[in-house]
Write a structure and sequence with these properties.
The protein is an alpha+beta fold. The protein has one domain: Electron Transport, Fmn-binding Protein, Chain A (Pnp Oxidase, Chain A, Roll). It has three helices and seven strands; from the N terminus they run αββββαββαβ. The protein has a seven-stranded antiparallel β-sheet. The two termini are 22 Å apart.
């Protein structure tokens, strides 16, 4: 059973909604980044390049929070708390291309840098609540 209330599933599946992802830095301070994401098999999947701040904070077992705003109504949102289950390079390049399709309407991620290594993370939601 999903911890995401049914009335907010459209924000994860049907709309190109951005999420604000909160992680914790090594020194214990919070870090927040707006991100692209998708939702598959009850897990939230995010993607970044190795070496970025997110790739240093998104380790398996790490606790995270996401605030996902409705693009048509920013007063409607869902907050999801969870933990990182997996981090993998396998399939990460195809995943960022699928996110580029969702968010930009492009078949290929247009911002790739030479030598960049993509990493895909699966987040297991443990609680969720929303507004609107």
């Amino acid at each position: 059973m999903s911890v995401i209330p049914d009335k907010y599933l459209d924000l994860l599946t049907a709309k190109p909604a951005f999420a604000n992802l909160a992680t914790v830095m090594k020194d214990g301070s919070p870090q927040v980044t707006p991100i692209w994401f998708d939702y598959a098999a009850g897990k939230i999947r995010v993607n970044t390049a190795r070496g970025r701040v997110k790739s240093r904070t998104l380790k398996p077992g790490a606790r995270v929070a996401l605030a996902i705003l409705d693009p048509q109504n920013p007063y409607r949102y869902v907050q999801v708390r969870g933990r990182v289950l997996t981090a993998t390079e396998q399939g990460a390049a195809a995943h960022i291309d699928s996110l580029a399709k969702k968010y930009l309407g492009k078949d290929k991620y247009p911002f790739a840098q030479p030598g960049e290594v993509r990493v895909m993370y699966e987040i297991e939601p443990t609680s969720a609540a929303g507004n609107g």
